[in-house]
Write the structure tokens for this entry.
Amino acid sequence: MRAAFFREAGQPLVIDQMDDPTPAAGDVVIAVQRAGICGSDLHITEYGAIPSGTVLGHEFAGEIVALGANVGGDWKVGDRVTALPIHPCHDCDACDNHLPALCRTNLFTGTTPLKQGAYADYVSARGNMLQRLPAGVSFDDGAMVEPLAVAYHAVEMAGAIKGNSVLVIGAGPIGAAVAVFARLAGARDVVVSERSEVRRQRALDVGASAVIDPVAENVGERFRAIAGRAPQVVFECVGIPGLIQNALELAGVRGRVVVAGVCFGEDKIQPLTAFANEISVAFSQCYVERDFERVIGHIARNDINIRPMHTETIGFAQLPDTFEALRTAVGQCKVLIDPSRA
């Protein structure tokens, strides 16, 4: 099969051939119909944080083409699915608490040659991590379930936000999706701070009540003018040094800060900023099966508008160049790969 391999930092992905996967016990093989390019893939290749020879890609949807032994449930060849891209041990504190993504020995699909990802014609997944795509949920939608579940989980981590005034820092794929689910959860105000004019408009398109240009405006003052108060909940969805401290400074009295942006470098905060307002801080790392189920349900019922987030679909041959271009293409949101295209 075709696959796009990471070789080394600073070099584009390389499309080459590899053996088709065969399903291990408990696994299935999925023919990839769509795969999403994730910002974390851009980051880990920039830093060389994965081994050479890794096939990236943890956002995917497709059809089951083979089942290994002991796959539970009523799965069969031809079923339309997505899957949590994780391979936990099921025998640790995290797994015992139904938090498989926090398993310390978890292998994350597309970050190691041991579990190659979906920038390929086929990808393997755990049978007990499969999620069925019902009628009305397309392969495009299915490939976006994973990043949407990241955002859904972040909103869940904030606790009850009905009637609250919410600030979202950043309107990339995760920030835009956080705005979607914060509105769905009943937040009174969902205000998005974003430098890019294109992304600010996209945030409004998916349901944000207002946007702020942090370059041209004082975010705290502008938020108070919009909502009549300081933010009760702040979601940091960018992941660069300094923004956690910025979120602490913006949050109101006994506000909550949820960190969903992954910062790969060292960062600093001033704890007294949080002490002064008794701010609670939570880090939202991933998701659980229920998050996938609920996201799929919301898509199937048309509860949410995710169409503006899907900005482009490319063919497999375009992947290396598009991947590199996304490092600086701030106007893009979610780019999907269709392996059937040349």
